[in-house]
User: Fold this.
Amino acid sequence: MEQRSYSEIVRDLMGDYRYEHSVNVAAEAVELARLYGENEEKAYTAGILHDITKEFPKEEQLRIITDFGIILDDVQQKAPKLWHSISGSVYIQTALDVTDGDIVNAVRYHTTGRANMSLLEKIIYIADYTAQGRTYNGVEIMREKSRSSLEDAMIFSFQFTFQKLSSEGIAIHPDELFAYNDIVLNKRG
Ligand SMILES: [Fe+2]
Ligand SMILES: [Fe+2]
Assistant:
């Protein structure tokens, strides 16, 4: 049987809009990988796969997560938007046999970030915000920052995210706070 590419697999699992987003994130991740010295193929793979389960029904995502033995914490239980990063990281291992832990973690933490993120994890986190097609207040600043410092870009995105979550009265996942603190405390210069 001919092996299908990740792009073909992803194409069948989501609508046009999200597929285009996935392609754009992959391209953006490759560009950042080139700029910051990460493996471009890994960046492409993590980028094209990052939202792979986003359009799966919520119940199916929960099943994927639970069957893998993962127990959602309080914040995650109340935030279905976070589920696709967890279910996606499981799905690429179980259904697509992705064994590269860095790629798995880049998908796993693309929504919240976490402390001690690898270069690839940061690239996917940022590429999701700076990819072509993204339009939000501040996207140009975010793109500009991403070209000079991934850490500065991440701080900018957390400022934006924390403000939004707190103004809407939504809980902030500890991983996001740990990611923010880690970057702020360890930033050079
Ligand atoms: Fe996502
Ligand atoms: Fe995304």
